[in-house]
Amino acid sequence: MKILLIGEYSNVHATLADGLRQLGHKVTVVSNGDFWKDYPRDIDLVRIPGKWGGIKFMLKLYATLPKLRGYDIVQLINPMFLEIKAERIFPIYRYLRRHNKKIILGAFGMDWYWVNTCDTTMPLRYSDFNMGKEHRHNPSAEKERKDWMGTAKERLNKFIAQDCDGIVTGLYEYHVCYHPHFPEKTCFIPFPIKPKNISVSQAPPERVHLFIGIHEGRSEYKGTDIMLRAAQEVVRKYPERAELHVAVSVPFTEYTKMMEGCDAILDQLYSYTPSMNPLEAMSKGIICIGGGEPENYEIIHEEELRPIINVLPTYESVYEEVEKLVLHPERIPFLKQQSIEYIKRHHDYVTVARKYEQFYQRVLLSE
Asked: Region 285-305: what's the mean pLDDT?
């Protein structure tokens, strides 16, 4: 198949492209590298800030469009798959629709179905937008509501979701938002990760090395502000037993280097499931402290492995679990080994690519 992947979130498309190429498909990735994270791509669509940057971006985009024709599959990372206003994406989407066989929408992050579902029916016990049946009113959540509710972004998301040939959800959370609306064309496929050839020491570490990545501007929204405070307090209390490493808005290659040698990563306080960064860490034998709810294991049919240290979205829960790990480092080798096995079993990039291949083939055969 000839496959076009447009947009990037946390290395999903770049990794998927490598997996699909291993299976013999011709794949092109078009993205801005997910901003400062600078993930690999084949066609670069970085937008420079400012008026002239916008003009140059539009000129480059329209010059690129003829290269985005004749594909069997075009997969969009999000309804907002380009760095332009939603109103301007409509004609680009129609162009892609007209000149390619099938369009797939990725449900991998922020969009109207995610915001609206968490704000109204609230099927999740907690999320970026609700705690139980109570709305979260922090500035980041309010900003996303304003961006997506009753706007051109909402209209674009609804239009693409209804018009496209298939929808892929990457996490349990996103699946519960899309599947009720589009049960026939929504398919859950885990995120792709390249497994590492890692051997785990069976000796507990003398000092537990904790790692946390901070995305400036989204720390409060993702809960890393709470996780950071809890980890700092544990390290302050047990300076001989624990050490904290903090990465702030660094490119992916630097981020992965900084986590090397760490024992555990704290990430995604309000999530039921580990996303790309903690999954990448788990592939290196680093334990995830974050989202590991029962639903995460159920959707991938995992009945044995439990590598994730699940926390509730509170300071107290994070502090308790981090302190427990620091005081009982004998648990670490076992959880590290389970983390590596978990990635090999459910997220191996070629295995995941094969699931995409099967989904694409079903979509191509459908009328």
From this structure: 97
Q: CA triplet 201, 203, 208: central angle to 5 degrees?
A: 95
37 falls within a domain: yes
For the segment 26-44, what is each residue's pLDDT rounded down to a tens digit? Answer: 999 999 999 888 899 999 9
Q: How far apart are CA 274 and CA 288, in angstroms?
A: 8
Q: What is the average per-residue pLDDT within 131-147?
A: 93
- Given a cut of 90, whether residue 51 has pLDDT beyond it is no
The CATH number covering residue 157 comes to 3.40.50.2000
Q: Under a CB-based contact definition with an 8 Å cutoff, are residues 315 and 230 in contact?
A: yes
The domain in which residue 318 lies consists of: 208-346
Residues with Cβ within 8 Å of residue 224, at least 6 apart in sequence: 212, 213, 214, 215, 266, 267, 269
Residue 257 and residue 360 share a domain:
no
Do residues 237 and 291 touch, judged by C-beta distance below 8 A? no
- Using alpha carbons, select from 222, 214, 242 the residue that is nearest to residue 324: 242
Whether residues 212 and 182 share a domain: the answer is no
pTM above 0.90, yes or no: yes
